[in-house]
Amino acid sequence: YIVTIRVKPDHSGVVTDGVKHSMNPFCEIAVEEAVKLKEKKFIKEVVAVSCGPTQVTETIRTALAMGCDRGIHVEVSGKDYEAMGPLQIAKIFAALAKKEEASLVILGKQAIDDDCNQTGQMTAALLDWPQGTFASEVTIDGEKVKVVREIDGGLETIKISMPAVLTADLRLNTPRYATLPNIMKAKKKKIANMKPADLGVDMVSRVEVLRVDEPPTRLAGVKVETVDDLVAKLKANGTI
Amino acid sequence: MTELLQYAFPESQSFAVNMFKGQINPSQVFPFPSVMNEEQTQFLQELVPPVSKFFEEVNDPAKNDSLEKVEDSTMESLKEMGAFGLQVPQDLGGVGLTNTQYARLVEIVGQHDLGVGITLGAHQSIGFKGILLVGSPAQKEKYLPKLATGETLAAFCLTEPASGSDAASIKTLATLSPCGKHYILNGGKIWISNGGLAEIFTVFAKMPMMDEKTGQMKDKITAFIVERSFGGVTHGPPEKKMGIKASNTAEVYFENVPVPIENVLGEVGGGFKVAMAILNNGRFGMAAALSGTMKGVITQAVDHAANRVQFGSKIHTYGAIQEKLARMTMLQYVTESMAYMISGNMDSGSKDYHIEAAISKIFASEAAWEVTDECIQVMGGMGFMKGSGVERVMRDLRIFRIFEGTNDILRLFVALNGFQDAGKHLKSLQKALKNPLGNAGLLAGEITKRAKRTLCASWVVFNGQYGCIVMLFLLSIADEQFVLKRVADSAIDLYAMVVVLSRASRSLSQGHASAQHEKILCETWCIEAYDRIMKNVKDLKSSSTTQVFKNMKAISAAVVENGGIVAPHPLGF
C-alpha cells in the first residue's frame, strides 16, 4: 500500500485521481471470513457491497473472485462521494441489510485511508442489532455468534444473537489469494447496480471539511548541554 | 538448413518478410497494434494484481535458487492459481488467454523469478504447445485438462547429445511394432527442462519413411505424445547449472517405450515442422518475460543511483551513470515494444511472424544480459553481492542466448529467410530504390521528419547493399556466415527502429504524459541504430573487411589445429 499521498492544491482533500485503489485490507479479512462461514455451511449466501463511483466494481469483482456469490454496487459519485463518510455508508448498509434480510453484516474494523472505525458500529446502531467489533475469532452456535474481541486489555469473549454486525480485526484470518480460475468464474456472477435514493438514504453530510494540510515538516532539534539549559529553552518557547 | 526455410508466403503482410523484398509493408507495424476488446482488457486488468501480489509476497526466488527447485508450497499455489494452463481453452480447464494477455502475465513472472518462468514455460510454452497447435480433438480432450491444472507436467524433448542446433540430425528412433498399433521408441534426450518432473513428453524421433518422389527410404522426424506411464521412460538426476537453478533440467531415456499410434502429434513424418511451429509460437513469450526482467533490474539500478552519494553528489548526476541508465531504458523500451507488437500481430491472425519472433528472441536475450550487467556495474560492489539479487538474475539470463535456438543460428535464420526469393525480387528492389521517400509516405502517424528520414536512409542503404548481397548469394558466397551475421544485425536494428517509431507515435497521438520522453527514447535509438546499420553495410562493401573475414578464418584454423593458443609466450616459455 505504498502510495505517495498529495494534498489537493485547493486543500479540500487528498488527490485520488490516478491513484491505484485496492480493497481495504480489513475488508479483505471480512470477505475471507464470510466466504469461510459459507464453506462451513453456516450461511447460505455472501453478498459483497461497495459504495462509490464506477471503479469500485473492480473491488467487488475481487470479492467475487474470493468466493462471494453476488455483488451490489451502490453508485455514489462527484460531490456526494467526496462528502461520503461512515454515517452515510452505515445508512446504506442498514437499508440493504433489511432489504436483503441478512443475518450477518461483516465489515472491516476500519478503512486504512481515513481510519474512522465507525461504520460497523453506526450500522448496528441504526439497525438496533448487536455488534461484535474487532473480532479475532468468530464461531456460529445455532442462532448465536461467539465473538472473541481484541481490546486494549487483551481479549474479550462475547455471545450475541443474530442478526448481528461484526467487524474484522487483523488476526481473524489470512485472506486467500484470488486464483485465475476463480476470477474467471467471478465474471459470471452478478453485480446489481443501485443509487442511495433507491434505498431511501439521504447522502447529506453533517460534517464539513474546512481544510486539509500535510503534517508540518519536522523542525530540526536543538542540542543542549545541561538540564538548566533545557529548562531555560522550554520556558523561553512557552512549553512550560 | 534447407528445412528451416520452408516458409514461402507469397502474399505476406509481415514487415520483416517485406523488408527483405525491398518493400515497406506497414500494415502490421503501424499503428501499434491494440488488439484486446474491452472484455479482454478488463479481464487482464483483474488478473495482473493477484499474480503480481503472489510473486511479490509468496514466491521466494532466492530460496528457489538455493534449494535448486521451486518450493513445494509455491508450486502448489501456482497450480491452484491456474498458472499452468494460461493458454488452454476455458472449456478444457485453462484460463484461455490470448497471446497478448499471456505476454502481460509472463512479464510479471520474468520480473521476479526466471527459474519459475522456465518451469512454467517449459511446460506450457513448449512442453504441451504442440497439442494446442496441432493436436487432434481427441488428444486435446485427453491431455489438456490435467495439464492445465498442473496435475501433470509437460516437457519438450528434442535435443540429444549429438543434436543441438542440428535438430534434424536426431537419432532417437521410432519403429512400427509388428501389430501395427504402437511405435516403439528408443533413444535418449539431454537438457530437458521439467525432464525429472514431467508426466507428458512431446518427443521427436526419426522414422525411416518411403520418399514418394525418389522411391527411396529417408529418415523423417515425427512428433509423439509420450506418457511416462507407457513404461520404459526414465530420467537422470537434476543437472547442476549456472542459473535458472530452480528449474529442473534432466536427461530423459526412452527404452522400448510403446507409444500408441493415436499419439502421433501432427503428421507422420511432419515432426520437424511441428517442432519449428512450437518454438516459433512460444518465442514472443521470451521477449515479454525479459522485458519484465529488465524493468525489475532497472528499478534497482535507478534506486541505487538516485541515493548513492560519491564525491559529494548523487551518482546519477554523473554522465557515465546517465549513459548507462539511458541505454538500459532504451533497450527495455525496444524489447517491450517488440514483445507486444508481435503478440498483437499473432492475436490478429498473422501466421508468418517467424522472422519477427526470431528477431525478438535475439534482441531480448542480448538486451537483458547487457542491461543486467550494467545494473551490477551501476550498483558497484553491492551488485556483486548475493543479497541484492541481481547476480542471480545475471546467472539466470545466460541461458536465454543459448536455448530455444541459439542466437547465432537464429541470426542465420533471419538472414537466410530473407534470401529465399532473392532472384525474383531483384527487380522490385530496383523499383523501390528509385523512390525511397515515396515508400515513406506509407509511414503514418506522428513520426518526426528526422526519424522518417533516418528510417528511409537506413532502408535505402540496407536495400541497396542488400541488392549486392543478393548478387553475391547468386554467386554462392552467401555461405559466408560473417556476411549473414551483419545482414541479420541490420535487419534486427531496422525492425527495432520501426517498432519504437510505431510505439512512440502512438503515445504522441494519444497524448500520453510520457509521450515526450518516449519520443526522445525513440529518436536516440534510431540515431544509433542508423549508425550501426551504416557501419554494417559499409563493412560489407569494404575490401579491408573482406580481408578481416579471411584473416579470422585463418586464425580460427590455426588455433583449432594447435588445440589452443598458437603464439608462443612473450617470455619464450
TrEMBL record, chain A:
- Major subcellular site: mitochondrion
Give the molecular function GO annotations.
electron transfer activity
Say yes or no: keyword Protein biosynthesis present.
Answer: no
Asked whether the keyword Transport is assigned, the reply is yes
Residues spanning the signal sequence: none
Please report a single Pfam family linked to this protein: ETF
A GO BP entry is:
amino acid catabolic process
The chain positions of domain Electron transfer flavoprotein alpha/beta-subunit N-terminal read 11-203
Q: Name one GO cellular component term.
A: mitochondrial matrix
Q: Which UniProt keywords apply?
A: Electron transport, Mitochondrion, Transport
Cellular location(s): Mitochondrion matrix
Q: What is the protein's quaternary organization?
A: Heterodimer of an alpha and a beta subunit. Heterodimer composed of ETFA and ETFB. Identified in a complex that contains ETFA, ETFB and ETFRF1. Interacts with ACADM.
* Family the UniProt entry places it in: Belongs to the ETF beta-subunit/FixA family.
Q: What does this gene product do? A: The electron transfer flavoprotein serves as a specific electron acceptor for several dehydrogenases, including five acyl-CoA dehydrogenases, glutaryl-CoA and sarcosine dehydrogenase. It transfers the electrons to the main mitochondrial respiratory chain via ETF-ubiquinone oxidoreductase (ETF dehydrogenase).
What is the protein's name according to its record?
Electron transfer flavoprotein subunit beta
UniProtKB/TrEMBL annotation, chain B:
Q: Which Pfam families match?
A: ACAD9-ACADV_C, Acyl-CoA_dh_1, Acyl-CoA_dh_M, Acyl-CoA_dh_N
Compartment(s): Mitochondrion inner membrane
Which GO BP annotation is one of this protein's? fatty acid metabolic process
Q: Provide a GO CC annotation, any one.
A: mitochondrial inner membrane
Q: Name one GO molecular function term.
A: flavin adenine dinucleotide binding
Q: Which UniProt keywords apply?
A: Acetylation, FAD, Fatty acid metabolism, Flavoprotein, Lipid metabolism, Membrane, Mitochondrion, Mitochondrion inner membrane, Oxidoreductase, Phosphoprotein, S-nitrosylation, Transit peptide
Q: Which EC main class describes this enzyme?
A: oxidoreductase
Residues annotated as domain Acyl-CoA dehydrogenase/oxidase N-terminal: 46-151
The record places domain ACAD9/ACADV-like C-terminal at 475-565
Membrane topology, from the record? Peripheral membrane protein
Q: Give the Acyl-CoA dehydrogenase/oxidase C-terminal domain ranges.
A: 269-415
Q: What is its EC number?
A: 1.3.8.9
Is the keyword Lipid metabolism in the record? Answer: yes
**What is the reaction catalyzed?**
dodecanoyl-CoA + oxidized [electron-transfer flavoprotein] + H(+) = (2E)-dodecenoyl-CoA + reduced [electron-transfer flavoprotein]; eicosanoyl-CoA + oxidized [electron-transfer flavoprotein] + H(+) = (2E)-eicosenoyl-CoA + reduced [electron-transfer flavoprotein]; oxidized [electron-transfer flavoprotein] + hexadecanoyl-CoA + H(+) = (2E)-hexadecenoyl-CoA + reduced [electron-transfer flavoprotein]; a very-long-chain 2,3-saturated fatty acyl-CoA + oxidized [electron-transfer flavoprotein] + H(+) = a very-long-chain (2E)-enoyl-CoA + reduced [electron-transfer flavoprotein]
Q: Which cofactor does it need?
A: FAD
The pathway noted for it is:
Lipid metabolism; mitochondrial fatty acid beta-oxidation
Q: For this UniProt entry, what is the primary localization, expressed as one broad class?
A: mitochondrion
- Top-level taxonomic group: Eukaryota
Which Gene3D superfamilies does the annotation name? Acyl-CoA dehydrogenase/oxidase, N-terminal domain, Butyryl-CoA Dehydrogenase, subunit A, domain 2, Butyryl-CoA Dehydrogenase, subunit A, domain 3
Taking every annotated instance into account, which residue ranges of this chain make up the domain Acyl-CoA oxidase/dehydrogenase middle? 155-257
Keyword match Membrane: yes
* PANTHER family xrefs: ACYL-COA DEHYDROGENASE, VERY LONG-CHAIN SPECIFIC ACYL-COA DEHYDROGENASE, MITOCHONDRIAL
Q: What does this protein do?
A: Very long-chain specific acyl-CoA dehydrogenase is one of the acyl-CoA dehydrogenases that catalyze the first step of mitochondrial fatty acid beta-oxidation, an aerobic process breaking down fatty acids into acetyl-CoA and allowing the production of energy from fats.
Q: How does it assemble?
A: Homodimer. Homodimerizes after import into the mitochondrion.
Task: Give the protein family.
Answer: Belongs to the acyl-CoA dehydrogenase family.
What is this protein's record name?
Very long-chain specific acyl-CoA dehydrogenase, mitochondrial
Name its species.
Oncorhynchus mykiss
Q: Which gene encodes it?
A: acadvl
